[in-house]
Amino acid sequence: MHILVVTQFFPPEMGAPAARFGDFARFWRGMGHRVTVLTTWPNAPRGRVIAPHRQRAWTSEDHDGVRVIRTPVLALGDRSTNRKALLYASFAVSALLQGALRRLAPDVVVGTAPPPTVAYVSLLLAQRFGVPHVLDIRDIWPEALLNSGRVRPSLAMATVERLNTWVLRSSAATTTVTAGKCRRLEELGAPADRVHLIPNGVDLNAFDRATREHDAEATQVLEKAGVPPGARLLTYAGVFNPPQGLDLVLDMAATQSDRTDDPLHILLVGDGQLRDHLQRRISRERLKRVHMAAPVRSALVAPIYGRSWASLVVLRRRADTHTIPSKLYECMAARRPTVVSADGEAAELARTADCGPVAAAGTATGLRAQLDALVDDKARAEAYAAHGRAYVEAHNDRAALSVAFMDVLARVVAP
């Protein structure tokens, strides 16, 4: 089978969308399928092309046996909604031209959203080649943006919602990452018999190998960030954007800044819209136990967690309750307690897996109380670590999830 994947994000970018289809593409190639990825130049999360990459027109490269076609975009930064809209729109135009003009001849086209503009392109390309279209939805836009207040209701948003309904009803199958999103997509018009749950996860073999092979580099990252040797370290690794609600972590640290008996240090690894804001707060409030590291390549995330006492997953209060941060699975895979501050399905998953203490979203005092209790209970921490790893092994190994996704593709190609 020849699978064409259209995605705005792909390795070497960090983050859930790049990891999801970077892994799927590699596993599908390993199963003997031909995989072509239509994407752009690495620019997430800041919206500027990441060095040493430089945009060129219509180039093709090999990524673990997968053909990756990169097409140029207007990467002007993420400082405004308009600039993000230009980034997404320019990829839609560029990818549509790229895909339509090349003789790709796929058997199926997979489009992964958000942004929803990717889905419009992937559906049009599927129609261009006369093959089935599979829509993969990681978050429901513009609904999630409207609920968060990041955008306001408008004619443009209403148009996007109508286009989304067209894509849902025109796709041979729709995959998504949580049970709540399955239900919501059916409410929005997706035929129930075409909606499939393919949750996020982690490639456990690659994760464990990275933990072994890159430990020395991870230690250097900690040293460069100013983490004292032997510190009891709570680590967040991911995107620094508004939905993560990382100000809560600094609020918690600020309430404990005068405690001389506090053994806990916090490490924030990553990048995003709020990085400069968080750095200013750390300096202004003299949060000496909070350390910030520059973004690292994905292979270093596993050993950084391995060097930590516990990992942290934070999600601010949301109107929807069906979002599960993908980093939760990596945290559980690391055999460390996973401390969660979230509501909805993310909190439910953490409790079901029994991977660590759970505090309600947005409650700094509640989060700190959970941490204080865990610091004094070594046996409980070890049990959390073992339970989290066992859960991911049973439910969220990307190798098994890639087989489940392939079953969906096979059914739509040869119904």
Give the structure's gist in a few sentences:
The chain has 415 residues and is of the alpha/beta class.
What does this protein look like?
The protein is of the alpha/beta class. It is 46% helix and 17% strand. The chain contains 16 helices and 14 strands. It has helices spanning 16-30, 81-101, 116-129, 143-148, 155-170, 179-187, 204-213, 215-224, 247-255, 275-284, 301-306, 327-333, 344-353, 364-375, 378-395, 398-413, and strands at residues 2-6, 34-40, 59-63, 66-71, 108-113, 133-137, 173-176, 195-197, 232-239, 264-271, 290-293, 310-314, 338-341, 358-359. Strands 3-4-2-1-5-6-7-8 form an eight-stranded mixed β-sheet, with helices on both faces. Helix 3 packs across helix 5 (155-170). The longest helix has 21 residues, at 81-101.
Which class best fits the helix and strand makeup?
Answer: alpha/beta
Largest sheet: 8 strands, mixed
Number of helices: 16
N- to C-terminal separation?
14 Å
Q: Strand-residue fraction?
A: 15-25%
* Principal-axes shape call: globular
Question: How much helical structure, as a percent, in the residues?
Answer: 40-55%
Whole-number mean pLDDT? 92
For the secondary structure, the number of strands is 14
H/E element order: EHEEEHEHEHHEHEHHEHEHEHEHEHEHHH
Spatial strand sequence of the major β-sheet: 3-4-2-1-5-6-7-8
- Low-pLDDT parts are none
